[in-house]
Structures are given as C-alpha cells and as structure tokens.
Amino acid sequence: MRVLLDTHVVLWWLADDPTLSDEIKHLLDTEPDAYVSTATLWEVSIKQTLGKLAPADLPERVRDAGFRPLPITVDHAIAAGRLPEIHRDPFDRMLVAQARCEDLTLVTRDPYIHKYDVALLSA
C-alpha cells in the first residue's frame, strides 16, 4: 500500500507514541512506499522555530527517518488551491492534493481531512 503520512503521524512514529496502533506502526516500519511530503518538513520547521516542537533537530530527524520524500509539484499546488474549503490549514490541503494526484493513501487522524474525497487510512 502506497501511503502519505500526515505530520502528526510522522511525529508520533518518531516518538514511538502509543497513540499509533501496532498495525500502523508495523505498516510504517515495513512499507517501502511510505512518503513524507516536503510540506510536512516545512510545517515541522516552522513549528520548531516558533518553539511549538522540540528538539531543535526535529526537521532533520523527520527527513532522515527513512520515508520516501514527496516533493511539491506545480500540479500539487494547483490541486491544493482548487480543493473545497473544508480544511483551512494549507499544509493539510497540500497533503490531500498530493495524495489525490499521486494516488496515495493518506494516513491521518484529522477529522477534516476525512471529509475530502481521498483514500484514507485512519491513524
């Protein structure tokens, strides 16, 4: 299963947080096609700079976690801009657009994302 990870899912996985089920942890530990978006690194970097996330090297830890990187393309940007105004967070809108454009299953617990027409796996 080709998956795209929402930011909170990556952070929970890095922290070995019990919030994630064993099934999701196993998937993330073994799935070679698990992607992390450039938008996630951008979001983590901003929140880390604002003091909302620690440690200082968290963006690098996300980058180096072994997931496949998913760059943001022009098509992703257009698709994100054209999404219905269900979710106002631009990072989450980008993840929805990327999942749709790249035919990925988005792993998330965000209830607003669940309102979009996108393949989902509930975290």
UniProtKB/TrEMBL annotation:
Pfam families: PIN (PF01850)
Keyword Hydrolase: yes
TM annotation in the entry: none
Keywords carried by this UniProt record: Hydrolase, Magnesium, Metal-binding, Nuclease
Keyword ATP-binding in record: no
Domain PIN: residue ranges: 3-117
GO molecular function, one term: nuclease activity
Superkingdom field: Bacteria
UniProt xrefs under PANTHER family: RIBONUCLEASE VAPC16, RIBONUCLEASE VAPC16-RELATED
Protein name: Twitching motility protein PilT
Organism: Phytohabitans houttuyneae
